[in-house]
Structure formats: structure tokens, C-alpha cells
Amino acid sequence: MCAVVGVHGTPDAAIWVRRALSALQHRGQESAGIAVADGSDIRVFKQVGLVSQALPESEILKLNGSIAIGHVRYSTAGKNRIEEAQPLLTECYHGMIAVVHNGNLIDQRGLKREVLMMNGTFQTTSDTEIALQMYAQTNKKTLDERLKRIGERMKAAFAMLFLTENQLAILQDPYGFRPLMIGQIGSATVIASESCAFTQLEQMSGQEADCIRDVLPGEIITVGQDGIKATSWMDIPRQRQRCIFEHVYFSRPDSITFGHRVQKVRRKLGQLLADVSKINADIVVPIPNSGIHAGIGYAEASGIPIEWALVRNQYIGRTFIDPLQSHRDNGVVEKLLPIVHLIEDKRVVLVDDSIVRGTTTRKIVRMVREVGKAREVHVAISCPLTISSCFYGIDTPRREELIASRMNVEEIRAQIGADSLTYNTLENLFAAVSPFAQEYCTSCYTNAHPLLDKFNLHTDNGYPERRHDGIQPHPTQG
Amino acid sequence: MCAVVGVHGTPDAAIWVRRALSALQHRGQESAGIAVADGSDIRVFKQVGLVSQALPESEILKLNGSIAIGHVRYSTAGKNRIEEAQPLLTECYHGMIAVVHNGNLIDQRGLKREVLMMNGTFQTTSDTEIALQMYAQTNKKTLDERLKRIGERMKAAFAMLFLTENQLAILQDPYGFRPLMIGQIGSATVIASESCAFTQLEQMSGQEADCIRDVLPGEIITVGQDGIKATSWMDIPRQRQRCIFEHVYFSRPDSITFGHRVQKVRRKLGQLLADVSKINADIVVPIPNSGIHAGIGYAEASGIPIEWALVRNQYIGRTFIDPLQSHRDNGVVEKLLPIVHLIEDKRVVLVDDSIVRGTTTRKIVRMVREVGKAREVHVAISCPLTISSCFYGIDTPRREELIASRMNVEEIRAQIGADSLTYNTLENLFAAVSPFAQEYCTSCYTNAHPLLDKFNLHTDNGYPERRHDGIQPHPTQG
Amino acid sequence: MCAVVGVHGTPDAAIWVRRALSALQHRGQESAGIAVADGSDIRVFKQVGLVSQALPESEILKLNGSIAIGHVRYSTAGKNRIEEAQPLLTECYHGMIAVVHNGNLIDQRGLKREVLMMNGTFQTTSDTEIALQMYAQTNKKTLDERLKRIGERMKAAFAMLFLTENQLAILQDPYGFRPLMIGQIGSATVIASESCAFTQLEQMSGQEADCIRDVLPGEIITVGQDGIKATSWMDIPRQRQRCIFEHVYFSRPDSITFGHRVQKVRRKLGQLLADVSKINADIVVPIPNSGIHAGIGYAEASGIPIEWALVRNQYIGRTFIDPLQSHRDNGVVEKLLPIVHLIEDKRVVLVDDSIVRGTTTRKIVRMVREVGKAREVHVAISCPLTISSCFYGIDTPRREELIASRMNVEEIRAQIGADSLTYNTLENLFAAVSPFAQEYCTSCYTNAHPLLDKFNLHTDNGYPERRHDGIQPHPTQG
Amino acid sequence: MCAVVGVHGTPDAAIWVRRALSALQHRGQESAGIAVADGSDIRVFKQVGLVSQALPESEILKLNGSIAIGHVRYSTAGKNRIEEAQPLLTECYHGMIAVVHNGNLIDQRGLKREVLMMNGTFQTTSDTEIALQMYAQTNKKTLDERLKRIGERMKAAFAMLFLTENQLAILQDPYGFRPLMIGQIGSATVIASESCAFTQLEQMSGQEADCIRDVLPGEIITVGQDGIKATSWMDIPRQRQRCIFEHVYFSRPDSITFGHRVQKVRRKLGQLLADVSKINADIVVPIPNSGIHAGIGYAEASGIPIEWALVRNQYIGRTFIDPLQSHRDNGVVEKLLPIVHLIEDKRVVLVDDSIVRGTTTRKIVRMVREVGKAREVHVAISCPLTISSCFYGIDTPRREELIASRMNVEEIRAQIGADSLTYNTLENLFAAVSPFAQEYCTSCYTNAHPLLDKFNLHTDNGYPERRHDGIQPHPTQG
Question: Which of A427, C97, D107, D366 is the most exposed place for a label (fewest CB within 10 A)?
């Protein structure tokens, strides 16, 4: 998923970025990095690992400069290499340029081929390098003109921050897939993937943080000594495609994402789910941490008492984001344990936000039944069935691994071993993010992919390829 | 604090210990280690860091043997060194002997002098080495006779597991300060600091776990091919001194410690606290994770709605246990953030389990007021005032650092900036662990130290020294 | 200095390259790396350190492929960073391309500006990246055509090997500064900076090694499945500029470099030096290892007995090559010690190949006199005075640090504390490499720099800058 | 093998020890360590690796104190573990005590049993820990009395330095197997395994170094504020057993060991060897570095010209000392290469100091013949046949691995593929170290082991065990 942060206008910009990245750590734990500009040079510090280890304060304090960008990363391709860590930095005709990226370009193969034909080079497999090469291949005089050209050439699902020796810039895709907010904290301008980063900086600096607004689709914003300048590279506005999964799972509950309070959306989903479910049960048990707010809503609407009966081992990392399946499996069984006396002999409704492969849920159901000794175990999911992979930056598994792509609800129920299984409806999902529900991308629930259709990127088996692996030179050249 | 684990009777004993240590990780994050016996040899694997990193499964799988002990450690003395990591292993006349220890010996200076006078040696500064040296200095023929001698010579606050080439043994102090339980999982015998380790092994192995019983004060238990044998090294039973802080803070809520369900004790404390507090407020906000169950109880008894309005950054480690103050401070401000719209303009009761130095609570109160924009911020603490350091294994700071040792409630309230501050009463604390309330050590709340009195270990300033630093040879010898 | 190796036509090409690099370790100890092609992909393994540690055999064995290139590096700029280690690898329109380089481009600033103006990018400060960018910016259809373009654009002092997915290629500068030889070992073609690499591979493989010939100035050679193809990118032949310092110091004595046996050249220099010197002395003591063969020649021609009276600590690295001055100083005093009884009360002639700063020689003279208790200490240098820095790949210090650039022979003698000091003559140097003496670059002894004159690269103070540090975009573009 | 160093009486004692250890690096490359006393405390710094890396000057500079001991180690048991690195430090009744050891105790099993029966403990497998335990088990009042007890209890082949908070002490075995010299440099007293360490410190400090004398067999020397005090723990003098291999191979040629100049002994052995050999040959080629001085002597006595025709790769470590056989093999073939034109078509005499397993020599002979294209290859060894393992500290392999223990000279010649093979005679070896030839241990050449006979330590197969592996408690005790 990744998170990006940009800070302009405070003498210790790198420290601000580090702190903001810490608040956004849930969006990526593989690597962390910062680039700082001091007016004449850009320096990068990045390492594999969590912010607290990868970016030690003692090192970051040495990075002087009043403009900085930062990134936390998780790997979509499973490679845990420092080479792929961001920011990426290069020197080109226009000077130094660094970039961080939250998103996933579609048609990377085509974009790379285009760059290569203009004599560009790629030293990593990161799609972010495409942006750097396009920047170097642009002859425009000003930063915003150059970004305009990049925006025109790129395809979907990008939220990028650029750093030159003396300017910070934002480039958003035409659909607004990924959240990106502009905030003001004292005299500093801060850009971040989620608003919880502003709260963190308010807490750190003692200066009030204002969420100014979301970055608009297609927008280019440059921040320099002359202030902020906003423009757009798009001629024709397109249908917004905000990622619904930010509300369901990815954003922190204390963030305001796409104009909605995430905690409220989740509680609302739980309330609506209780109406769908109508299970007779003794207790509602949210699966921590993903099901907490939906569980609260479910208990409120159903009148069934809530019990915090599953204890999470806080020293085992977040499951979803770990690139290696083997880690995932170990993690699950070490991470949750029941408080037996709260569950024993009870009819339990477990509330969670989604079932992906089904393996984790099956293990939890079995644990609640066998170790926890529940009488009945019902499962209620605050969202509809996840039936499609994501091609815009969420690391959902391939379609065939999604349990809901090959089984119906009753089959899934049998597979996870629950006494009953309830999913929320798409209508309820839309209701939770009303009134602009049509501005969301819900392709993971609908398998509708208008963008892939538009660029004709579906593969023979009906699904686009998700990874670039090798470029063949174009058959006819010149 | 530390945790200890012992396993006897399963071919992959080391893997069992590793998994149990993972469940006990909250008791120590500095180092982790395992010793395994295969009938003729003992091997140790230990490293600095969390279980998941310090004890990689691939390495632990290589440690064959059906008996094993393990340890997770946090440093009371602030040294983060592999030399201090446990298990400690040595060879002596009786063969190989490994040991793990949860506790804190009192009069270490005197015990060390005694060992040194018998020509013993110390290669670390760990008090656990005293037990190894005493073992080597014992001429008894059998394992339990040797442990009896150690029990007689040692002083207070120890729960130790010993491993020989073919036996596992337990040695408990005469007061039973630290919890230690015996469980049975399939045909394996498991000893662990907390019962959540049994639940974890039940979950891993698919075999039912039975909590057999607590290890008794003064008890010696040996586990070998001939089965379990229990005896005691004490002639005269003494007043039990179970650590009350295990219930208040240290144990996991899903553990049964000293016969009480920890989650229930905490909820009860919250209910009783609400009666003491009687604050008019709009919402109850538990401070995660330490105040969760007390907060639930508070809300139940007061009728004030609970809101989960503080979000915890799960990627920052547990505050209390970090040995370096500077880490502690950074940790606090990065770890918690408010969900502003839940708090804004509300009268808030924050519920937590204790105030130690007061610095953390002051920061949280200020954050809830300034960042969260609460109208009023009340603080309710589920325990009495912490007025004394612990000399039996809890890493509370020195007495002068405890805010409640130098200020009364009103002064503390002013210091932390709260609109009101309520502490629970000692009577309520006893009520929550009734009916055997008199079997608990509550010296951190009462500053009564019968044990130190008994051994005449108070220093001139009224408090015993907490660290051993250098031995001068006894002036006259022989 | 660096060394490069290329191997084509053996299934374990990477292991061959590793072994050859080990034989060439004297040319660079900072980092070592290998790139291997298997027909469809190229993989790189490189690390900081000596070959034996940086390229562990267990890792190199995993690099399958029948074509490989390798590099050992020492830093001219003092940065010991993995980013600067070679091979460099990138993807471009023509596919994957890796490169290793022995040499030093002149006018790097101009070359970089040219590349940047064509929208190229630089991610390291290594001049080798210029070649990669030029490769990507070439529209030619074939590998040799592309290298021809690079040859035309580059300026002086390069000996490069390129690796594509299925071809190995060589590119030599028009002057032939750096040695590069083609050998045949069994059915494999091997390119190496020195012939001792062939001897090493003969020794390893048990197959006879043939030194086929030197790579010619301006030559382009490609090696692929269709065999070897040699061509040239030069229209007009230029005066060869072989580096004389390869004979004096850099090459191993068992190598044949530029057609001369290095050991013989050095012994000859020693013989000729004895005629110049005519010192009355009791013993000749070569300074190990640099003065060994000149010392033998000196003893032969003078009739003075040779004594191996200086013992070298083989565990301290080669002095000259260490990028940090502080290391150099420590190294000297720890590296050599006298066998006192061989020297005591004797008139000693110390024979070495050069005096650079004078600090090392002064320390040795003093040690031989004071610790060794020699009666007289004479110094004889097998080469002329080193009066100019090198701009073509040898890491001699800046001109003002060269003692012979600011002092005459008598002043140097006084400075190093010797009883007499003799340098060889330029005529003798030429005689030792006759008959093609005019094909050598002797600018370090003459301060004549025809190449810098040609490109008008002298700086205001009469000497060119040796490092690139920052590019300003060209004022007018297009 | 190992080397030890002690320094008393200079404020930067640790830096002096570090420099001396660097000069003694040839005696051990596995680990290096220093212990420093400042009057009230002892600190240890030790790491795996060479002195230059394991003991960085920046770290050693922090170790204040005017008394220090140091150690470089090679493993006899093949374990490359920091746990085995010296100095060892412990606390006991007498205070802090650190120790370094050069030697190899015999009957370690018996000594360990004795220590264990007195309730001692062992935390490493190093035999040096026996000395620490014996120290702790001694009730004597003064340092020299305690060492006297240790001397009486230990068995053979030890040269130890002890460090207390304010004293340095030496303990030598009754036979004087290992060299140990006392030197004076300015006002500092220095103890070292070889005199080259004094030369190094003279060179570093600019103060004259005097070799005072060898430590005597059975001697105890203490150095403190009150000066040096020498005594002995032996009642009856015993036959000295100086290790002849120090002259043959181990000591540096610039050292004076056991009163002989090592370089002279080796040259003399070469001269005497030429008389035995009487080969007709064209050139003498010493095998560097072990055969250099014997080769010079051989050429002098035979009149055959010497050629330095084998080039040693100085970046590959010393072969003999590497604990792992696999490293040994790789090392050999990468380490030496011929200068072909000096050897080609010549009758060559290779001179070396010993043949151990025969594998290295066979590879060199083959390389000189096949790669070097020699017409004839004769081998001359400056010592007699090595027929027995060493039990006193030299890491020769087990007897059955020694080629000369199972083959006669003609068989060895055939095995190594030489045209002729000559060994020196035992008489010549004695002649080279006359007049006190009877004071040397030559058991590796004679297989006579009077010491093992004395302690009745021969095993059933006629040879003692060389490793301790596991102690069984004595059946009857007390």
C-alpha cells in the first residue's frame, strides 16, 4: 500500500517527516526512507525495516533542510530489497529529483517500453522509476510543466510527491484512487496519505494542525519559496475512483479519508450488518484490531452485549501486509488467543471486516470453538464478498486465491466451519459512504474494471497481468 | 520482569518453548533464549531481541531434545547485553546445568559474598548466576537435594527452572511472589509464568491443555523419565506474598494468575472505581491497552457510555518495559492519538491502571485536551497510589521518581493537568482479589516491606539498595 | 586502479571470474562484484571488501550462466560505498546491460552534461554510469555499433567490459592506457587486466592457458555464440599511451603486461639503477614487496650482497591503495620491522620503486637507522622523480602532495633523512621497456599531458580538476 | 599456538598491547582481545577477526589504564566462537581476575574433573578457564602464592599472563615449551611471546626497547606498583622442553626466540640441507614465505642461483592456521603462482620448511611442473620428517593425517610427484640450535613423549586424546 509524506517550511523537515511516517506505519512496514532538500542538494536516508529502526532519530537529525519527503513501503511483489525502497533519487538535466509514490501504475509494460524507446534506463523493478525517467525526458522549463507531461503519459492509480533542490510537488492521478491531504501546521505545509499524520505532528509540535483539503484528481501542486501553486494536467474530468478499501480496512480509524471519518464509517457498517444478520447470540466479539469499530456498531444495533474476549499479541506484526505466505500462517496462530471464561458455552458472533483467502478466519473460528469452547460460532463480515483482485495498489492476492471468487456464501461458511456466515450488502456499503457513493472504486466487490477496459489491458484469461517481467524491444523502430 | 517456560515430554520441546515464549513476550522484550537437553548434552540458543527475531524457527528446529527451558528478559539494570541473556549454562561436578529465572534476589551483595568465599566465580552481573554457583557448591547426590540447599541459601522473589541433561526442575521462593503454573498438554508437562502459554500450546498442538495447579511457595518439583516428584525445601510455612501488580498490570488479561481470571479482576477494579469516582462525564475512554478492562468495568458501573477514542500505534513497543528513559519519552508521544470527533467538546473520563512518574499521563491528558479538544478531562486510576519501589522483580523506578511518593492526590492532579483525579482504594483492591487478599504483596501501595525488615536490608536512607555494584573481599577470612 | 575480468564459454563462468579476481586483488581491495548472463537475464552480486569475503564461493556457485564479467575496485574519491561498486547494471531499450570499467574518464563534467542534455539520469557518482547512459542513448541496431558510438563520445583512459543477456564485449580507449589481454583456456575466452589471471585459471582448471594478445587501442571486441568479432571505433590511429606505472608498481611480477615480463623490467631497472648509484655499501635491502625485484637487480649489478632484512607483516593491507590517509600512516609503522642483527652497524642500500609523499620512506629510513641500528642508510629508487599526478586512473595524490613536485633530490634526501638518495633516469626507464618506449605515458615523471592539452582541460592553476562535483544545467538549451 | 602480551607502566597500556598483538598476528588470526586494569576495575574488549578489525583503535583508545594484557588466538578445536576468545575475565573472592594463555594443557580431562570436584564451574570449552577456576579455588593471601598453587596443579605447556585490578603476573610451565620474553621500553615493562613485539613498540614509541630475558621454566613474576618480583613454584628443576617448531616455522624471522635469532637458524638449516641434498639443479626457488630463509641458505651452500619465482597473493590468509580443511584447500591454489619465464625448462629445487599432509606440496609441485613448465622439480625440506602430532599447543593434525607417519621418503616423493625429495637430518636440526639442543622438545620428529609417559596419558591406540569432550562425574566422591 505505502504511505507518502511531504513537508515544506520548517527547519527540521526531516524529523517532521519521520514522525508522520511513524503515524502511517500501518500502511507499510517493509522499508522507510526520507529525502531532504536544503536549497542546493538532496540527501536520502532509507533502510529496510520499521520507521523506529530504519530511521533512527540520531541519523535523521543530521539531515538539514526545510523541505523533505518520505515513504513507508510494503512490497507488492514480495521482494524485500533496499534497492526498491523509496525515495528514489537521480540527477538529470533539470538537476536533482527525488520521488515517492503511493499507488500502482497500470500498463507498466507499455509505459516502460515507451521510456526505453526514448533511451531511458531502469535500475530497479519499481514502477516509480518510470516517473523519474519521464521527468528526465521532459524538455519543459518549469517544474509544473514537467509534471503535467508526466501526468499525461502515466496511467492511473498514482499519488506522487516530488522533491527538487528547492521545491516540493504533488502529482495526483485523474481518478483519485489514493488519499492525499494537504495540511497546515504552524507555518509549515504538510502533505500526507492520511490525516492522522497531521494529528501526530500537532501532538509533536504543539502547533495546531489544520486539514486544508484533499488533493484533487489530476491536480499538480508545487510548494516553494513563492508559496503554493495548484494547477491540473487534465483537460477532461473523469469519474472519480476512490478506493473503498481505505474505509473498510486500510486507513487508521482516527483518520478522515475522502471526507469521511473512518471510525464512523466502520461503526455504521457494523450497525447495518446487524440488520442483515439477525443472529440470536449471547455475545458479540470483535476480531481485534480489524473488527473493533464494526463490532461496536453491531452490538449497538443488535442489542447483544459486546465482550473483548480475544487478546491480541501486540508483538506479532500485522497479518495482511506481510509479503510471504509462510509468515502469514505463523502469524495468525501466534497472534490471537481467547479469554476462555468469557466465551465458554456462549453463542458468539465474531465480527470482522473481510474474508480474503479464508484460512485465517477458519483458524480463528476453530480456535474460538475448540480452545474457547464456544457453543456456537457465527461470523459476520462488515463488507460484501471480496471477489476480485485489486490493480490499483492494494496487495490483495490473485483472484483464484480469493475464497469468494470460487465459492458462494454457504460454501464459504462450511469451509470456515462457522454455524452461520453473514456478509454486508453493497447497498449498505454505499450507504456508509453516502452521499458520494458513486465516486468510489468498488471493483474488489463487483469485479467491474472500467479502467482496464478503457486501456484494453485485460489478458486472455479475463484478468490483467499484475507484474512486469521483462521488456521485449518493440518490433518496429524509428 | 521476565517469563520462564519449561517443557518435558515432547520430541520438539524447543519449538513448544519458543511458541510459549511468544505468548509471554509482554513480560520481556530484551532477549530470548532456549536450552534443550537430549539426555546427554544441553544446547543453548539465545539472542537479543523479540522472540520472532531472536529465536528464528529454522534455528530452533535444529535443537533436538525432549526437555527444554526458555526465558524472555527485560533488564532491571538497563544493560542490553547478550551476556545477561538467559538461559545461563555451565558445567560443574554434577554435570551440565542450565537455569532460567523470573524474580529478583534480595541481598544479592550478601549472597555473592557467600558464594565468592566458597571460591565461586561470577562472569556476568546477573543475579541468576548465584543459583548456578550455589548448585556447583552443593555436595548432595540428587537434583532435589541440591535444589533444597539452594532454596535454603537464597533470599526471596525467585521462580527458577533448572535443566540437567535429563531432568527439568522447578524451585519456588517461600513467598510465591511470581506466578508459575504447571500444565498438561497431551503427554507433555509444561511449566509457565502465565496460563496464556498453555492456551497458546493448545492452539498450536490441537491437544487440550489443562492447568493443573500453581507451584507452591517453597516447592521443589523435578520432572524426569520417572515422572513428576514434588517436595519442599521449607520447614516452616511463611506468609504468602503474591505480587498484586500481576493483576493490575503485568499478566495478560486471558491468563489465570494466582487463581484469579485477570480480565475479571481488572473489570471489577473498574466497577469499584466508578463508585469511588462519581464524576459527571459524557464518555469513558480507556487508555489502550492498559486501561481496557478497567474502563469497561467503569462504564458498566457508572452508566456512562464507553468510546474507543484513543488509537494506539501498534508498531511502537510497550512503554513501561523499555530500559532507557529517552526511549520511553519518544514512545509516549508517538504511540497514542485521539479520534477527535469522538472527544471534541465532551467531558471525558480517562481510565488507566496506574500513574508511575506522571509524565506519560500528563502528556496524554494534554493531548486529549488540546489535540482531542475535550471540554473536561478527568482521570480515574483503577489502583491506589504507587508510593514505593519494588524489590522483588518489577522494574518500577526508584522511589523518588514515583510521583505519588512526593505529592498528594491534589498535587498530582495539578501536575498532570486533569480536571479531577480519582484513585481506587486499597480496600477495593483487596476486594477484587478476595477471598485471599492477605496473601498478596502490596508493598508498592503501602511501602510496608516485611521481608527487608526481616533480613535487615534497609539502607541508611530508609530504602534498600537495588543494585549490586562491586564486591569487596571480606576483611577477615576463615 | 581496479581490475576487470570477462569470461565466455564455460558453464561456471562466475566461479572463473571470482578466481581471476582473486589473482587481481592487488589492483583493488575496496569492493568486488560479478555479473552473470544466462541467455535471458543478468544477475549481479557485489559487496564491499576483499574477494574472499565479498564474493563467498557458496553465493557465486548459485549464479548460473556461461558469460560473466567481474571487477575489483579501489576508490579514487575516498568513498567506500556499495553504491559505487561495480558491475553496474541497468535495463534500457536494448535490454539489460552491465558494465565494468578500469580507467578514469577525463572531462567527466563535460561528458555528464552531454548525457544529461539528452535526458539521461545519474544515480551514482561513478563515471562508469556515463557509459551506461550513452549506451541507452544510442539508436544503433547491433552491440558493436552501439559501442562504437560510446567510443566516439568518451574521452580517454577507459578499458571496459560490457555484458548483455548473451554477449560479452570489450571497449578500449584510443591510447591503450590500461592493459587488457585476451586469453584462451580450454574452450573458454577470458579477458583480464593482467595475465596472472590466466595463470590462475590454468592452475584452477587444469587446462592450458594461452595469452592470445593485448586488446588494441580503439578496439571493440564482441564475444557471443557466433564467436569473436573484432573491429575498431577509431578512424585515425593515435599515439599509444601505455601506463609506465604498470611496470614500475602496479602489475604483479608474474604478469606479462604490454608485452613485457614485469619481473624482468623491474630487475632491469634495478641493474641500471646500480650503475647510476655507485654507492659503497655492505648490504642491499629491498623494501618488501615493492622493491624486491629491483633490489635483486641492484645486487646483481653492484656485486653488493642482498639481505632480506625487512620483515613484512602480511596481515596489514597494501599501503598505497588505502583511500584514507589515516589508515596509510598507521599501516606503515605496523607493516615493516627490521631483522636487527642483519642490519646493525652495516652500510645499507634500501631499494624501492618510488617515493610519493616521502612520509613512508622517511619512516622506514628512520626505523632502519634507529631500530635496526644501521651505520649508513642509502636510498635508491628504481624510477625517476614522481612530479605529476595521474589523470588516467592511478590514484596518485594531488600534485602539491608529491614531494618531488616541490623539492629537488638533495632536499628530498634531507627530508627523508637518508645518507644518500639516488633516482633512476628517464633514459633507463625507457631502456627497460625498449624497443617501444615512445608508446608509454610517462606524464607522472615528465608532467607532459598532451591529452589534457588536446581537450583544453587544464584549470587555472595549471592542473585539471580531478573530481566531478555537481552539474549546473547549461544556460541555454535547444 | 596463540600469542600473549602484557604491558605495565604506561598510561596507554591498551594501545601498546594492540600494537604488539599486531606484530604477533602470525601466531593467531581467529580472535583478538585486550583486558585493561585501571586500579579498581578491569575491562575487556575482544572480537573475532584480525587485530586491525577486531580491535579498532578508536575503541581501544577508550580503555584507560596503565596495565593491560592481550591475546591473539587460533582454534585447536575448529570453533570460531567469540565465547572462546581471550582474555577470559571473572569475579571471584579475590576480586577481578583476567587471564590469557599460550599453550595447551595436557590431561585437561583430569584437571577439569579436579576443579569440578571442588564445586568449580565451566562456561566455555577453553582449557584456559581451568586456570581461572583454580585461582578462585585458592585460599592464599597474595597473588604469587595463588599462582604457585596453580602452577603445582596444572600440567605442562602453558605460558599465562594474569591481570588483577592493579597487578600483572606471569606463570610459566616447568618445561618452558612456549617462548615468553620480558622487555623494557622506556619505563614500561612488556611481556610478549616473541621479541618482534618489542621492536614494534620501539618503532611506535621512539623509545629504545631492551629484551631483558626469557621467562624461566616454572617462574612466577608479578609486576605492580612495587616493581617486579620473580619467584618459582617448582621445587625440582626439570628437563627443558622448548618447542623446536618455533624456529622451524612459527616465530617471525626477526624474533630472537629461546636465545637464537630465528632468521639465522633457518638459513643455517638451509645450508646444512644443501649438504644433504646434493641435487644438480639450475635454480633454487624458496616457497614463500615459509621457505625464504632456508632457501637463501640452500643457495649459498650449494652455489645454485636463487630465483624468486613464486608469487604469493598477499590477500589470501596463512594456510597452516586456518581451522577448516576446506578453507585450506581453496587457499593453496589461490595463493601461489609461478613466474613462468623464470622456471620454464629449468631444473628447480623447491625449498620449504615442512611437509604436513602432503596435499599442499603436491599441488605446488604439480603447478611448478605443469603451469611453470619446469623440466625437473626437486623438493628439499629444511627439517626431518614430521611423524607425530603435537600435544603442547601446535595445531598439527592427528597423527594419521601426517603423511610421514604412514609413508617413507620414497613413498612421499612419489605421492607429491617430485623428481627427488630430501629431508634434513635430526643431527642438523640440533646443530642449528646448538649448544643447548637437548633443551628442545622434538617430539614431532621423534614421536618420543616423555611427558605423556610421565602422566600415563597415552590412550589405547598408543596416542593420547587431544580433545576433552564431556566429563562424567567421578563415581565415588569424598
Answer: A427
For residues B335 and B322, the answer to whether their CB atoms sit within 8 Å is no
Query: What ipTM was reported for this prediction?
Result: 0.88
- Residue A77's pLDDT is 47
Residues B25 and B115 in one domain: yes
pLDDT for C276 equals 96
In a domain, C149, yes or no: yes
Directed axis angle between helix A108-117 and helix A128-136, to 10°? 30
pLDDT of residue C130 exceeding 60, the answer is yes
Closest CA to C33 of C90, C78, C93, C99: C99
Contact exists between B and C (3 or more beta carbon pairs < 8 Å) = no
pLDDT at D84: 83
Residue D295 falls in which region: left (phi positive, over 0), alpha (psi -120 to 50) or beta? alpha
Determine the average pLDDT of the residues in A444-448. 90
Of the candidates C26, C311, C371, the beta carbon closest to that of D253 is on C311
Task: Report the pLDDT value the prediction gives residue D212, as an integer from 0 to 100.
Answer: 94
Residue A322 vs residue A256, higher pLDDT: A256
User: pLDDT at residue C465 above 50?
Assistant: no
Q: Average pLDDT in the B337-361 region? A: 96
pLDDT of amino acid A234: 87
Does residue D458 sit within a domain?
A: no
Contact D179, D173 (CB under 8 A): no
Q: At what angle do helices A196-205 and B325-335 cross, to 10 degrees?
A: 140
Residues of C in contact with A132 (CB under 8 A): 121
Chain B partners within 8 Å of D90 (Cβ):
121-123
What is the band of C454 on the pLDDT scale with cuts at 50, 70, 90?
confident
D89 CB neighbours in chain B (<8 A) are 123
Confidence of residue B328 (pLDDT cuts 50, 70, 90): very low
Evaluate if residue D462 carries a pLDDT over 50: no
Instruction: Please indicate, yes or no, whether residues A265 and A336 belong to a single structural domain of this protein.
Output: yes
Residue B362: the pLDDT is 96
Cell numbers found for residue B289? 491497552
Closest-approach residue (CA) in chain B for A24: B313
- Identify the domain boundary among D206, D237, D268: D237
Cell numbers representing residue D213 in the block: 630475558
CATH number of the domain bearing residue C154: 3.60.20.10
- Side-chain-side CA neighbours of D386 within 13 Å: the count stands at 25
Range A102-117 average pLDDT: 90
Q: Which residues of D touch B (CB under 8 A)?
A: 89-95, 112, 116-123, 132-133, 136-139, 470-471, 473-474, 477-478
Q: How far is A404 from chain C (nearest CA, A)?
A: 37
Nearest to C119 among A89, A93, A471 (CB): A93
Question: How many beta-carbon contacts under 8 Å exist across C and D?
Answer: 109
The parent domain of residue D277 ranges over 256-432
> Inter-chain contact A339–B57, Cβ cutoff 8 Å?
no
Tell me how far apart the alpha carbons of residues D102 and D105 are, in angstroms, rounded to a whole number. 10
Alpha carbon distance A444, A388 (integer Å)? 4
Hey, are the CB atoms on A119 and C92 less than 8 Å from each other?
yes
**Could A26 and B341 be called an inter-chain contact, meaning their C-beta atoms sit closer than 8 Å?**
no
Among this protein's residues, is D444 annotated catalytic? no
Chains B and D: how many Cβ contacts under 8 Å?
82
Task: For residues B342 and B374, give the distance between their C-alpha atoms in angstroms, rounded to a whole number.
Answer: 9
Whether residue C280 has a cis bond before it, omega within 30° of 0: no
What are the residues facing A44 on neighbouring strands? A35
> Which has more confidence, D454 or A27?
A27
* Alpha-carbon dihedral sign for residues A276, A279, A284, A286: negative
Q: What is the pLDDT of residues D369-381, one digit of tens each?
A: 999 999 999 999 9
D partners (3+ CB pairs within 8 A) are B, C
- CATH of residue D426's domain is 3.40.50.2020
